[in-house]
Write a structure and sequence with these properties.
- By secondary structure, the chain is α/β, with parallel strands linked by helices.
- It has one domain: 3-Layer(aba) Sandwich (Rossmann fold), CATH 3.40.50.300.
- It has five helices and seven strands.
- A seven-stranded mixed sheet has the order 2-3-1-4-5-6-7, with helices on both faces.
- It is globular, with a radius of gyration of 16 Å.
- One of its GO terms (biological process) is small GTPase-mediated signal transduction.
- Keywords: GTP-binding, Nucleotide-binding.
- Pfam families: Ras.
Length: about 200
């Protein structure tokens, strides 16, 4: 059975663990214990042939304390889910200022999906903290993410789609330069499919 490795990164408290555990367990997981590193395996059926795959989803620490340890989980990653919370604009700023650069430094050819978590909390966030879908799409283009997807672990909105897209990204053919887009960014999905707000 093929094994695909998906690593989830982003600031602390953006909902990475809830996203992963809710997907794996099919029930909302609300635990606030900070993660250092954890991995979860799930068998998925994907593609036209409905082929069984083993998806290994790695949960990483967002705290600065683990900045030197976290990249040890990056080798052999097929796709990164780079998370921020749509009710916390600082977490999106850190996508640009920290996370994107860390991933590009350690794994420059691995595709990134930008994930806006906690979509159910946007409406209740203070105006200066809320991140619009349009801003999420804009940042996805800036960091050359292959997709922008919003989801809510609490309501399980967008979770299935997120992992379907992650598997598809992991399966993207690599060009001579090792990039998942074959070296041609223009061949990737346009804005309408790049941004998936569910």
């Amino acid at each position: 059975m093929d094994v695909l490795k998906c690593v989830v990164v982003g600031d602390s408290n953006v909902g990475k663990t809830s996203l992963i555990m809710t997907y794996v367990q099919s029930a909302f997981y609300e635990d606030s214990i900070p993660t250092v590193f954890d991995s979860h395996e799930v068998t998925v059926n994907h593609g036209e042939a409905n082929k069984s795959r083993q998806l290994v989803v790695c949960d990483t620490a967002g705290q600065e304390t683990y900045d030197r340890l976290r990249p040890l989980s990056y080798p052999d990653t097929h796709v990164f889910l780079l998370c921020f919370s749509v009710n916390n604009s600082t977490s999106l700023s850190n996508v640009i200022e920290k996370w994107h650069w860390e991933l590009k430094h350690h794994s420059p050819n691995t595709p990134i999906i930008l994930v806006g978590t906690k979509s159910d909390l946007r409406a209740s966030a203070p105006t200066d903290k809320a991140v619009s879908s349009e801003r999420g799409c804009q940042v996805a283009r800036e960091i050359k993410a292959i997709k922008y997807i919003e989801c809510s672990a609490r309501h399980q909105d967008g979770l299935h789609r997120l992992f379907v897209e992650a598997i598809a990204a992991a399966d993207m053919p690599r060009g001579d330069n090792g990039r998942a887009d074959g070296g041609n960014r223009n061949s990737l999905n346009g804005l309408k499919t790049l941004c998936s707000v569910l």
